[in-house]
Fold this sequence. Notes:
The chain is of the alpha/beta class and about 210 residues long. Helix content is about 30%, strand content about 30%. The protein has one domain (about 5-205): Vaccinia Virus protein VP39 (Rossmann fold). It has six helices and nine strands; from the N terminus they run αβαβαβαβαβββαββ. Strands 3-2-1-4-5-9-8 form a seven-stranded mixed sheet, sandwiched between helices. The protein has a two-stranded antiparallel sheet with strand order 6-7. It is globular. S-adenosylmethionine binds near residues 5, 54, 56 and 102.
Amino acid sequence: MGDASNDFHRNLVRPRTEELLDVQAGELILDIACGNGNYSKKLAEMGAKVVAFDYSFKMIELAKKRQKTVLDKVAFHVCDATKFEELIKLKQERPFDKAVAKMAIMDISDLDPLFKALHSLLRPDGIFVGATRHPCFTFPNGDDFTNSMEKGEAIQGQPALQNYYHRTIADIFNVAFHYGFVVDGFYEVPFKERATPIIIIVRFRKK
Ligand SMILES: C[S@@+](CC[C@H](N)C(=O)[O-])C[C@H]1O[C@@H](n2cnc3c(N)ncnc32)[C@H](O)[C@@H]1O
């Protein structure tokens, strides 16, 4: 992904994510499944103080090297988004104003611990913006009602295929509702001239 990410993220994912996230200087933001940290750096450049994590130790080592100019504003951690006890250790001296997971919801095998932890980590009225593959239009086997895992290729030529977890929109929303969030922002974004959207970007707000 380099320093500047790729066209897909720059042109499809970031604009609506940024609109829904509406970063304000001084905010404390949690960057969930941050990868190489290029978006964490962008959040810092917008004036936020950022806590960023990924469950890949190697990725976080690389993120720290790549983003060394902003380490005073971005704290990188190794943390598994499916482990509530690990997530809760990310608690800071004040609650997070916002959280973001850019193209990661479909990579995370269990969303329950994440929403449970987010409810405790975010301030009242705090928001979580998640961008993910469109559950209705990018489902495997033509069956969007069966939750499943499939192997896929995110970056052409990547050395190993990754796991994608398919869930219905209702499954994603219902876990959020269960932990006390409402949805107050939602976009479906198409790819180039295609008629069907390939990603959804959702803003969840803590009640
Ligand atoms: C498609 S990348 C997105 C990276 C980054 N958010 C971005 O927009 O460039 C998905 C990331 O999710 C991470 N990931 C997958 N499952 C995870 C989990 N359970 N906990 C934390 N990170 C996870 C992967 O290691 C990978 O870096």
